[in-house]
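dumping this here so i dont lose it
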């Protein structure tokens, strides 16, 4: 991000660094100025300490803190692993880079070109890795998704995930990824670089400035605006520059006379001249004469003065000026705190400073702890809010509202849909009184709206009305409106985009009803109240995200989404009319969370049902009927949210259970609580409410804990004045590197990758061998076991200690994998089903599995790219010795897991393809029969059960299924283990996935006794499962492998047919002849093929299907640009002996055949 500026406090020192030629001379030279040692980033910040270590803090969901971990929890300052010789650091958006004293550069975090190692995939790297092939560097800077360095020869290079604005400086303005360092054209004698967002400026030895990249606001300074430049342009009329600072849309400089100049976007007073005018050429800024360094953020500028003070001006909505306010100022504000400032670093919405003594202070937006760790987006312990006798409270995902002792409604938190009704659109951690509601008796809060029940029985609502949840029949938010047709309400409740009320014992609902949550027999929304069917004596109503529950004469009835058992009737099905919850006849309270529900019985026992991680009995999975919450037998009131519940107990104690990612368990940790934990709440609690956060009310106060993105449970995540950062030592004073050689020293680092110790085989839980209809064994599964592991390390073992630690494999290497006679595979097995994983490949390459007695065929079992760990499950024929061989074209580590073996005559029958499961909550999440769809993103360390038999043509007698399992929009590096619902799950990987890339793998999955499979996920991700066949039919024969299709020009196939067809265009279909080719029989039923996508032009998928059918709604292979990837597919062959391959985006394809059935 924008530079943490070098301390050039006295001009004589500067003159010693920049050798300035006399006027009229054409000979200039420069020495590189030192890089930055403290940098404020958008979501994380870093500092170089005096001992050469780096400490970073804030967001770590892409590994950008460099600790060897990827976490969803914001982190306090701690060292970056393996760095003890850093000179400077640069912080981008989700990645970090550093320059070492050797001149090497290391980067870590989100890749996609940002790390300079040639990898274009959006993978995450959690430990520093050296940028390969980079000439020794002096300093580094970073923008949103790119980085630039000054070399020891005073040239510059850049790299990054996009060049759409010309920010790479290679002379072009394109959207291409430049994943390796690229020289900046026409630039030499560079003393200093600074980057922010999408542009960079360079200070040259002749004291002039060149800039390139985005120029929408004139921030390049050449007198133009709106035209980006991929080539450095000269900033007009500027010389004698000693420092530069680049912001999001403007740039600034300090001259050798101590004055400041800025150009570009001057809105919000960022130039500090008393107005908001912009300028495409430099103008005098900040009104100072003693500036020594400068930096810029998003419409805000700060300069450090010789006095050690700082002066700032501009946009201040998030406290970026650090003056204790959020008031924007077009005139400079000079501040003496913190004292003795030597450098200042600004990013878009935050800032940090370093004192001469090395103390670091930060201020501004603190959404991820990048300014000050603790009490930020999560409050893991209750924080008290002093109020006057709150009469009622409610909290949902973004807002807390209450009714005070004056019958007024007061709200705090988010305001994007005008939930606070103050017209600002800005979140507030202070309560805002809702105008026009002065006689409230109750309040209810939905995701982006709220409603109040008035003492008259009317209901008024405000906020978002996109689903009609305000109930006035308009469908557009117009302020506080009265709900139509409800005049004598005794209760109101809201959740998601739905609102319900009780009137005369009947329940009326309005808003979103697409899951049936309006209860009127329809799956549709309504902008006015509709009466819920079959309820006449309601006393309580609770609204969840997509379902509703009510107490009706002591019984509990629920309706809406029931896919996770939250309706409590013993089923996992939705209902648009109320169903009766099993076994409860004396309920006194009811609550509805996102995917679960809870009630209190007449004895005080709390009971819950739905998604079992939330229901409080310690189990995981689904509880489709009520279960007792352990130890909670004296509950008086309940609260339920998106991922947990809390109970107020008769003695005033509070217990909570469920997920804890936001601290919503209130026990001071972020550790999930499958069983209740105690919350330290104030005495005298009288009521409780919750969602992603929970609040309790006493007679005089409200105490809240949990999510705090918008200040709903505590101080809004802003630090309005500089706060000290607790580092383990002082930050270093910037220095130039001492490197004088042009020889690059390469540092070897270790990178956390999928397929690491988390995918090492563990136990040897036996798996029942499935038996076909004739009694013959088919696709006999074994407990998934690792047979080959090239890496050396703790936990990196094989099932029997053989073939472990064999070493990283070089280019063109061949590995013999002993299979028969190991891990339950018999000596007479003819083929094996194995998962081959390439780990940390050194470059683009492929792996081919084949019988060892043959030479490697012209096929690939797995395609991989540099730095991207990928796996694929394949059926490989064994030689007479029971072995298979693995050819590796490019250097990589490798692991091989066996999951099944194939005796002669294995039976197989194709179906579909058909989608059996899709957890996404979008309209695209459609399954073949409507089951197992829209269940929501899977959470880390969770397991998802999917029924297979009896669906999509898979008979009850099937013993195994061939399914394509895909990880969608994964939040981090992780893996799936697909197994027949064993306990515990095998410790192997069926699919390794990475953040930001959809990854699929086709596997032969043994079924449990009841015809189901279970999918364990190690990280947060959505999941889809497509079935393509089952074991219970034709005869299987291993064959080849042979290449049947290669669309690339100049490439061939085993028989010369279907070669060089050209890149497949979006929406096109290849009709591929299979039967009768290369010795294949004419009566093929299925072909076992590996389909590989190469050089894709966009994100897309391929679907393999019989040519006589239209492409089904199932993906055989997902692909992304820059990553060649393959998948093994069991493809049904049509009556003409063909298969068809549909592609949704432009891509090259290869098809290799490994076996068939007849």
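and the seq i came up w/
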């Amino acid at each position: 991000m924008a530079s943490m500026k070098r301390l050039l406090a006295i001009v004589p020192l500067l003159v010693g660094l920049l050798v300035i030629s006399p006027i009229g001379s054409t000979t200039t030279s420069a020495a590189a100025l030192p890089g930055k040692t403290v940098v404020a980033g958008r979501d994380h910040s870093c500092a170089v300490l005096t001992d050469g270590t780096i400490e970073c803090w804030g967001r770590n969901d892409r590994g950008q803190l460099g600790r060897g971990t990827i976490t969803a929890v914001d982190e306090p300052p701690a060292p970056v692993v393996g760095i003890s010789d850093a000179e400077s650091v640069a912080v981008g958006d989700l990645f970090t880079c550093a320059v070492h004293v050797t001149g090497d550069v290391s980067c870590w975090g989100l890749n996609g070109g940002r790390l300079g190692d040639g990898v274009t995939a959006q993978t995450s790297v959690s430990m520093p890795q050296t940028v390969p092939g980079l000439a020794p560097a002096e300093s580094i800077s970073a923008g949103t998704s790119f980085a630039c360095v000054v070399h020891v020869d005073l040239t510059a290079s850049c790299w990054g995930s996009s060049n759409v604005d010309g920010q790479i400086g290679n002379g072009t303005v394109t959207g291409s990824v430049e994943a390796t360092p690229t020289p900046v054209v026409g630039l030499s004698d560079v003393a200093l670089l600074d980057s922010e967002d999408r542009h960079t400026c360079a200070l040259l030895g002749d004291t002039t400035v060149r800039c390139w990249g985005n120029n929408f606001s004139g921030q390049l300074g050449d007198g133009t605006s709106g035209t980006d430049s991929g080539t450095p342009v000269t900033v007009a009329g500027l010389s004698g520059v000693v420092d530069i600072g680049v912001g999001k849309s403007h740039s600034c400089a300090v001259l050798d006379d101590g004055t400041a100049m800025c150009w570009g976007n001057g809105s919000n007073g960022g130039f500090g001249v008393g107005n908001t005018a912009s300028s495409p050429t430099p103008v005098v800024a900040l009104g100072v004469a003693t500036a020594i360094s400068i930096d810029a953020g998003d419409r805000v500028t700060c300069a450090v003065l010789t006095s050690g003070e700082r002066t700032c001006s501009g946009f201040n909505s998030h406290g970026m000026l650090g003056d204790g306010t959020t008031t924007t100022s077009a005139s400079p504000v000079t501040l003496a705190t913190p004292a003795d400032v030597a450098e200042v670093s600004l990013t878009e919405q935050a800032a940090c400073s370093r004192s001469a003594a090395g103390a670091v202070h930060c201020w501004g937006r603190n959404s991820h702890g990048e300014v000050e760790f603790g009490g930020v987006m999560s409050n893991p312990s209750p924080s008290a809010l002093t109020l006057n006798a709150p009469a009622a409270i409610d909290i949902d995902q973004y807002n807390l509202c209450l009714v005070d002792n004056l019958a007024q409604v007061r709200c705090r938190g988010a305001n994007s849909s005008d939930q606070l009704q103050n017209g600002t659109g800005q979140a507030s951690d202070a309560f805002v009184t809702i105008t026009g509601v002065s006689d409230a008796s109750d309040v209810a809060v939905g995701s982006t709206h709220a409603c109040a029940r008035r003492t008259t029985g009317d209901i008024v609502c405000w906020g978002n009305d996109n689903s009609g949840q305000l109930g006035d029949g308009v469908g557009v938010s117009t302020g506080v409106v009265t709900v139509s047709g409800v005049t004598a309400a005794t209760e109101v409740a809201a959740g998601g985009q739905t609102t319900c009320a009780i009137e005369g014992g009947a329940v009326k609902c309005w808003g979103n009803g697409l899951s049936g949550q309006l209860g009127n027999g329809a799956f549709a929304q309504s902008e006015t109240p509709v009466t819920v069917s079959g309820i006449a004596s309601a006393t309580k109503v609770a609204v969840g995200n997509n379902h509703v529950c009510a107490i009706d004469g002591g019984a509990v009835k629920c309706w809406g989404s029931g896919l996770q058992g939250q309706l409590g009737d013993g089923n996992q099905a939705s209902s648009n009319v109320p169903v009766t919850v099993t076994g409860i006849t004396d309920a006194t309270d009811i609550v509805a969370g996102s995917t679960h529900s809870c009630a209190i019985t007449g004895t005080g026992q709390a009971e819950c049902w739905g998604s079992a991680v939330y229901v409080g009995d310690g189990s995981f999975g689904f509880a489709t009927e009520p279960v007792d919450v352990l130890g909670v037998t004296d509950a008086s009131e309940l609260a339920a949210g998106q991922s947990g519940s809390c109970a107020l107990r008769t003695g005033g104690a509070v217990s909570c259970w469920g997920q804890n990612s936001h601290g919503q368990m209130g026990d001071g940790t972020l550790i999930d609580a499958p069983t209740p934990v105690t919350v330290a709440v104030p005495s005298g609690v009288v009521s409780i409410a919750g969602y992603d956060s929970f609040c309790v009310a006493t007679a005089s106060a409200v105490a809240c804990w949990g999510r705090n993105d918008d200040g709903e449970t505590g101080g809004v995540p802003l630090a309005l004045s500089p706060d000290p950062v607790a580092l383990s030592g002082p930050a270093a004073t910037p220095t130039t590197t001492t490197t004088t050689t042009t020889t690059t020293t390469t540092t070897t680092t270790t990178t956390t990758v999928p397929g690491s110790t988390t995918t090492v085989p563990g136990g040897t839980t036996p798996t029942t061998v499935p038996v076909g209809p004739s009694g013959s064994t088919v696709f006999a599964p074994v407990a998934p076991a690792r047979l080959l592991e090239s890496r050396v390390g703790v936990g990196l073992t094989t099932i029997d200690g053989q073939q472990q630690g064999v070493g990283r494999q070089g280019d063109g290497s061949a590995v013999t994998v002993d299979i028969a006679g190991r891990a339950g595979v018999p000596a007479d097995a003819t083929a094996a089903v194995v998962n081959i994983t390439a780990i940390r490949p050194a470059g683009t390459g492929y792996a081919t599995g084949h019988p060892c007695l043959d030479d490697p065929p012209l096929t690939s079992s797995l395609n991989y790219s540099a730095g991207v760990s990928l796996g694929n499950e394949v059926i490989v024929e064994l030689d007479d010795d029971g072995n298979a061989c693995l050819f590796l074209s490019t250097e990589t580590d490798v692991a091989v897991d066996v999951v099944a073996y194939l005796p002669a005559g294995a039976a197989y029958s194709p179906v579909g393809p058909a989608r059996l499961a899709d957890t996404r909550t979008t309209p695209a999440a459609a399954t073949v029969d409507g089951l197992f769809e829209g269940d929501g993103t899977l959470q880390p360390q969770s397991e998802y059960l999917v029924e297979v038999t009896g669906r999509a043509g898979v008979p009850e007698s099937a013993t195994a299924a061939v399914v394509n399992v895909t990880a969608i929009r994964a939040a981090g590096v992780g893996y799936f283990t697909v197994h027949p619902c064993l306990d515990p799950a095998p410790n192997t990987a069926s699919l390794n996935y990475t953040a930001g890339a959809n990854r699929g793998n086709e596997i032969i999955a043994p079924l449990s006794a009841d015809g189901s499979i279970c999918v364990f996920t190690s990280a947060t991700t959505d999941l889809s499962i497509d079935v393509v066949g089952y074991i219970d039919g034709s005869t299987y024969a291993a064959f080849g492998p042979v290449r049947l299709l290669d669309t690339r020009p100049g490439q061939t196939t085993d028989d010369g047919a279907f070669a060089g067809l050209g890149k497949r265009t979006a929406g096109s279909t290849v009709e591929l002849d299979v039967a009768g080719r290369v010795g294949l029989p004419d009566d093929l039923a299925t072909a076992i093929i590996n389909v590989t996508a190469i050089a894709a032009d966009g994100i897309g998928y391929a679907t393999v299907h019989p040519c006589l059918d239209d492409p089904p709604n199932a993906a055989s292979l997902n692909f992304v640009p820059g990553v060649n990837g393959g998948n093994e597919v069991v493809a049904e062959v049509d009556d003409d002996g063909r298969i068809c391959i549909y592609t949704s985006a432009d891509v090259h394809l290869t098809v290799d055949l490994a076996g068939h059935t007849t």
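The longest strand covers residues 1022-1046.
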